Recover the amino acids of this structure.
């Protein structure tokens, strides 16, 4: 028995799912109770302690990575702040003519500090998450040239959520560098910003300006926040337990042994996986938002009905929004705003016009974004392909937009008519499903194999009750999934039209309200995929 | 304060209403029989529900080692004692306790034999919590029964009619030799039993004590699952609890496992031949306790003899085919 386990370190790994009993009936109520009973000034410390205890229970000694990240973020922030203050002091005492030169020196120093911080944080993430992948690929290359040796493949333990809190850390330091926020002199506030327990497993990836002050200046638990928060947790639970977890055995069976199935079944598997991933991730996000709402904290939304998107580009503005905006702000804009890229854009604009001109520099930046996006999701060529696939679709979409507009004008087709909008929505969903097929496959070659099978052998023959039994699913499961999807669709449609269902319910009488809540709770308990005959499914994005 | 009290009262009333709905859902979804189509899981172990009341003398509780190693029909054949295997694959102690409680509702066993392999299999507190909720509100366990629910079931009280002829034992005919290198090598070390497992062992032990039931620990032979560290722990534990402990992984007079022939999966579990040996040894031990009495009741003898005949006919047929093929 090691020391960590004496203090229950790592014993709460099941809590990575916010729908686990341990979290819902033990950790969360205890945290809420402690938060509610302590004096107002101490509430933020309760949140911080709860967050660190949560991470300890989930990750045990790997909490050291979290502490190192917090310490590093704090020190780099202070360092940048010191340079900025010195610069101001020196510039105020310097003659106007010499200011530019002196400023450049300070800016260079700041840039070096930023670079060092980014290298350290991203380097740690790369080492922990990708060293095995890199070593494997180097060994493959070495074997190609018949090298008599190979490098060892390291197997490193990675703390949960590192992909998320590293991006938060980098965003904080970069924002301090750009002067968007002031470096925080309070390490406890930074600790809470980085480690707030609802967000640390799967995000959302928050900016310091979005949540740090909210978390530090927390409020008393209010009745409305409590009830609205609980409703959102329940809604997320329905998405995750009734839909995502019910689809899991079928998806697993198809992707584990795809050779046993025709292309049509594999396509069905890809569609189901896409639904599963969305319901799993967005359901978990609903729980995150709900928990934060109970504490009076408003977090940035991560999903805005992505399957209503009419293009792949729009899809990625609605799916995992905080990751997309992170890449946009910290990769896309920095690349396009370099001097070389600006020059390239202005010269290309002259030759290719206002639409195609900026696409060249934009394309380079977009390539960087989607390469990183693919790699961020996992250490594998299929993930990199997944990124490149979306890069091509988005860039291609941008390139053909003027041609498409001209075509619509020529044939007098209104691109905003319902039928065409519906066509675009279905087309986008299909393109996303193909991307997810590669995402879920066990490797790039396997992904191409699956795609090839769909194209060359698109058949549903053999789809009978025997096959469904083999896939651990039955027609009744499909009925329940279908009913729940319709419910989610209706709620999404209302949200899309700006109608808040929770506000609507709140305006109803107590009997109607309670009947709705009882129905939802009983629906989840009876139709949820848990308990005997089901294997608990970890939140899917916690592994990325 | 007034607002707080109002909200608190509302929350209490809401939870009370929810409880009523959950109790109603539990009553509706509770299986009305112990057949496979009603119960869905571990139907062999649930066969005990259909056994006539107070007719089972010995309960064997544990994971797959139990249903692979102990044949209650052979114990009946040799001594006239009735017994039952309450075991399922990968059975953890929370499930063992559930089986034990289930059996105790209709039976008054004189001896409970707890197989020790599962005592070392830790499980998360999550499972324990879920199990506790299952016990209070069965809807959490049987929620999936909406798939096979019939309207008439709602108004019917449970009637358990499915009797398991083999009394929880599962016959495995295949052989796959074990590698016995390092098996039961001497060691002074003692294996660790998790905190939660200790709680469950103590619950079973104290219930047995209260009900005047003899608790026995049994380690069935398994090269893959057993070692001296576990044996040392069980010796200490049986001493602490004042129970008998039989470890069939160690040499005993007249008992020897042929690891070439008696295991079905490289030493993990016993097959038919291994089970015959283990059952014979355990039967002889049960007889030596002097607690059990040979059943004379006509109905019991008739039912058990019938089950035994069906089993022996099957086995004899298979053994003669086997002999012919050799």
């Amino acid at each position: 028995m090691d020391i960590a386990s004496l203090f229950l370190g790592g014993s709460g790994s099941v809590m990575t799912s916010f729908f686990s009993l341990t979290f819902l009936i033990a950790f969360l109520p205890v945290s809420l109770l402690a938060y509610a009973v302590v004096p107002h000034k101490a509430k933020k410390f309760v949140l911080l302690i709860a967050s660190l205890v949560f991470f300890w229970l989930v990750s045990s000694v790997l909490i050291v990575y979290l502490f190192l990240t917090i310490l590093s973020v704090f020190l780099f922030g202070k360092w940048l702040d010191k340079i900025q203050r010195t610069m101001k002091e020196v510039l105020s005492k310097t003659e106007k003519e010499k200011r530019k030169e002196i400023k450049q020196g300070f800016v260079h120093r700041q840039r070096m500090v930023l670079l060092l911080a980014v290298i350290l944080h991203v380097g740690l993430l790369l080492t922990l998450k990708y060293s095995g992948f890199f070593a494997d690929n180097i060994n493959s290359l070495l074997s190609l040239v018949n090298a008599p040796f190979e490098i060892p493949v390291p197997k490193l333990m990675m703390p949960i959520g590192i992909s998320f809190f590293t991006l938060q850390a980098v965003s904080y330091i970069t924002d301090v560098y750009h002067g968007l926020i002031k470096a925080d002199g309070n390490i406890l506030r930074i600790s809470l910003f980085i480690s707030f327990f609802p967000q640390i497993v799967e995000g959302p990836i928050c900016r310091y300006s979005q949540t740090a002050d909210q978390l530090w200046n927390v409020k008393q638990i209010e009745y409305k926040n409590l009830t609205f928060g609980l409703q959102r947790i329940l809604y997320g639970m329905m998405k995750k337990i009734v839909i995502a977890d019910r689809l899991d055995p079928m998806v697993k069976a198809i992707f584990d042994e795809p050779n046993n199935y025709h292309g049509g079944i594999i396509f069905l598997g890809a569609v189901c996986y896409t639904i599963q991933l969305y319901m799993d991730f967005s359901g978990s996000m609903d729980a995150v938002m709900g928990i934060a709402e109970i504490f009076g904290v408003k977090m940035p939304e991560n999903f805005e009905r992505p399957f209503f998107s009419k293009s792949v580009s729009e899809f990625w503005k609605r799916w995992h929004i905080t990751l997309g905006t992170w890449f946009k702000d910290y990769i896309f804009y920095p690349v396009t705003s370099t001097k070389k890229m600006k020059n390239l854009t202005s010269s290309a604009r002259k030759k290719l016009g206002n639409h195609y001109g900026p696409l060249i520099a934009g394309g380079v930046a977009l390539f960087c974004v989607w390469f990183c996006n693919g790699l961020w999701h996992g250490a594998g060529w299929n993930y990199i392909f997944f990124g490149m696939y979306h890069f091509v679709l988005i860039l291609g979409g941008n390139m053909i937009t003027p041609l498409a507009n001209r075509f619509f004008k020529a044939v007098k087709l209104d691109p905003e008519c319902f039928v065409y909008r519906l066509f675009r929505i279905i087309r986008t969903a299909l393109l996303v499903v193909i991307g997810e097929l590669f995402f879920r496959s066990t490797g790039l070659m396997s992904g191409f194999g699956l795609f090839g099978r769909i194209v060359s052998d698109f058949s549903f023959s053999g789809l009978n009750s025997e096959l469904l039994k083999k896939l651990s699913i039955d027609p009744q499961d499909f009925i329940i999934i279908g009913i729940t999807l319709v419910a989610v669709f209706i709620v999404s449609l209302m949200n899309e039209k700006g109608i808040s269902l929770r506000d609507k319910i709140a305006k109803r009488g107590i009997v109607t309200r309670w009947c709705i809540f009882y129905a939802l709770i009983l629906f989840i308990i009876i139709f949820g995929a848990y308990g005997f005959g089901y294997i608990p499914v970890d939140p899917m994005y916690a592994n990325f | 304060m007034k607002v707080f009290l109002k909200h608190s009262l509302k929350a209490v009333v809401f939870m009370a209403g929810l409880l009523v709905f959950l109790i109603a859902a539990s009553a509706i979804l509770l299986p009305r029989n112990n057949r496979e189509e009603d119960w869905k899981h571990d139907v062999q172990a649930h066969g005990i529900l259909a056994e006539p009341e107070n007719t089972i003398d010995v309960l064997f509780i544990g994971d797959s080692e139990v249903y692979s190693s102990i044949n209650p029909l052979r114990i009946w054949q040799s001594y006239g004692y009735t017994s039952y295997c309450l075991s399922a694959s990968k059975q953890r102690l929370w499930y063992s306790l559930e089986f034990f409680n289930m059996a105790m509702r209709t039976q008054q066993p004189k001896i409970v034999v707890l197989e020790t392999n599962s005592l070392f299999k830790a499980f998360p507190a999550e499972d324990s919590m879920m199990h506790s909720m299952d016990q209070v509100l069965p809807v959490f366990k049987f929620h999936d029964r909406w798939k096979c629910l019939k309207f008439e079931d709602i108004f019917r009280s449970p009637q358990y009619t499915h009797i398991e002829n083999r009394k929880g034992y599962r016959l495995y005919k295949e052989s796959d030799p074990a590698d016995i290198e390092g098996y039961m090598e001497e060691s002074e070390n003692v294996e660790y039993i998790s905190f939660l497992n200790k709680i469950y062992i103590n619950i079973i032990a104290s219930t047995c004590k209260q009900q005047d039931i003899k608790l026995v620990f049994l380690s069935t032979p398994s090269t893959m699952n057993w070692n001296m560290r576990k044996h040392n722990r069980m010796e200490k534990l049986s001493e602490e609890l004042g129970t008998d402990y039989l470890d069939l992984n160690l040499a005993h007079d007249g008992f020897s496992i042929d690891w070439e022939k008696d295991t079905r999966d490289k030493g993990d579990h016993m097959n038919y031949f291994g089970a015959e040996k283990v059952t014979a040894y355990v039967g002889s031990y049960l007889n030596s306790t002097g607690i059990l009495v040979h059943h004379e009741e006509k109905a019991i003898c008739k039912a058990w003899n019938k089950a035994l005949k069906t089993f022996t006919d099957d086995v004899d047929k298979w053994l003669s085919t086997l002999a012919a093929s050799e």
